[in-house]
Every structure is written in C-alpha cells, then in structure tokens.
Amino acid sequence: MDTTSRLLMLLEVVEQGSFAKAAEIRNIDRSVISKQISRLEDELGVRLLNRTTRSFSLTAAGAEMIKKAGELRELLGETVRMAENYHLEPRGVLKITSSTLIGRRYLQPVLNDFQKRFPQVEVELRLDDRLVDIVSEGFDLAFRVGEPKDSSLIARKIARNRLLILAAPEFIETYGMPKTMEDLAQLPAASYASNSIRVEGIDYFNSKGEQCEQKIKSVFRANDAEALLMKTLSGTTYFVAPAFIIGDEITQGKLVPLLTDVKLMEFSAMYAVYPHRDLPVRTRLFFDAVREHLGKDKPIWENGIPNFEQMY
C-alpha cells in the first residue's frame, strides 16, 4: 500500500469516527488499518492521531493531512470520471444506495434492463433505510425521499410524491365513512415512527387556504412504510400514505381513499443525490433511465390511483 492509499484510509477512519467502522466498510480486520496508519505516520515523520484504547483525536498535523487527503480524493475521482467519459461503452462499477422499498420496487427493474444494454457495467445496490454518507462510502448515486440537508451534495428532484388517506373496505364497514377531519381524528390510525421522525398528525389546508394540523389517534406505529400498508390492509387502521408505496391495492379494491376533497400538504419528493456534477457516463445513463422509468410529469406510482389528479 502506497502513501496515497494510506492517506485515503486515514480519511475514511476520521469520517467514520472509528477504526472498526472503516474496517467494516473495507471488509478487512481493524488491525490492518491500525498498522497502515502507523506506517503512514512513519513515512511522514509526524504523529497524525492521538490514540486511546477506545477513541482517537487528530493532531494539528493530522488535521492538515485530512484536508489534503480530501483534496486528493476529489482529484483522483475527477481523473477517473474524465477517463471514463472517453469510453465508447459504459463500464466499471456503478454503486447505488436507496431505501429498501425504492430499490426493490423502482430501481431493480431499471437495473435489469440497464445491464442488458450495458453488460460491461457492474452494479452494487445497497438497500438501507438509514441515510448513508455517500461520499465516504463511495456511492455514485443515492435515491432518497426528501431533499438532503448536506449542501455539498448535488440533489435533483426526479418525481413528486403526494399523500392520500387510505383504509380497507373492512375498516369502513366497521367505523363508517368519515366525512370530516374531525371524524377521522376519532378513528384508529397507523403512523410512521423512527428514532428521528414521529408522525402525530395530518397537515392540510382548510377551506380558507390556511395550513392546519389534525392530530390523529395512532394505535400502530412502525418505521417501515410497507409494514404500515400491511396493517392498513388488515382493516384495523387507516393510514396517511405517501403515493410511492401504492401498487395495485386501490384498483383491486383492497384500499379506498378517504376524504378526497381535503387539500393535503405534498409529501417530500423523491430525489437523486450524487457527490459531483460531472457524472461518469454509466452514472448519467442510469440516472436518465430511472427518470424515464419513473415518468417525467406523472410518476409511475400514480398510475395505480384512479382520478388522483382530482384528489387531495
């Protein structure tokens, strides 16, 4: 391993916050990373890290080296992307991350067709509902619901993602059809809840165009949209659902939209996120293929919601 590789390894350790996490990403033993960082310090003749048994901190020299390592990674990335753009045929590894639902339902069909067209492109698809660090973990593209907060990343909206209120016919038979938001608030709901987000109400606009929130009576919470959908299909709750999780449940009569005359606030759109504006050919072609598949004006998931343009 040369000095450049060791500098990039040091950068990964600092970005991940531990030797163990960096080792996990590289699929190597922690002791290998520790040994290589020690060799880097010997080569440079300066101490880069102050280490304890459980943590580390950067020395002044280490902080400067990290800045240089970041610049080096950027330069190497630009060089590789420039070279790849001269290839007549896309090739190399395309590394993508997304939530599990988006990956399985919307990216997998595109990937299957993409690799038939471009067999020299290898694909690594990482399905993970946590927000990964796409720069330090080396991803070319990330597909996310909601615009990322990291301003250093490039984010492009690729599809809208509206909300609708859904219940199974069995639910309506049990509780009746709600006529107002106040009626709905008395009924059992399924709602999203995670360590960082907890849905407690429904945001909508009243007849005066004023933004309002109606508290809901949640009896089932989960951090997975498909689990919430399955609960709703059981007929025991209603669910304020983002449209992208809907398949053919409405057209088959398994779910019924409620209070369709209420103007709901639009849910977070779907974005493609990438670390550089100058995309390699394989990444740009896949991005274009996903946009084409999802639909540029009307998202593909709205095809399973009849008359959705007139709702909410």
UniProtKB/TrEMBL annotation:
Domain of life assignment: Bacteria
PROSITE patterns reported for this sequence: HTH_LYSR (PS50931)
InterPro entries xref list: LysR-type_TF_proteobact-type, LysR_HTH_N, LysR_subst-bd, WH-like_DNA-bd_sf, WH_DNA-bd_sf
Listed CDD domains: PBP2_CrgA_like
Family annotation (Gene3D superfamilies): 3.40.190.290, Winged helix-like DNA-binding domain superfamily/Winged helix DNA-binding domain
Residue ranges of the TM segments: none
Boundaries of every HTH lysR-type domain copy: 1-59
The entry's keywords: DNA-binding, Transcription, Transcription regulation
Similarity section: Belongs to the LysR transcriptional regulatory family.
Protein name: HTH lysR-type domain-containing protein
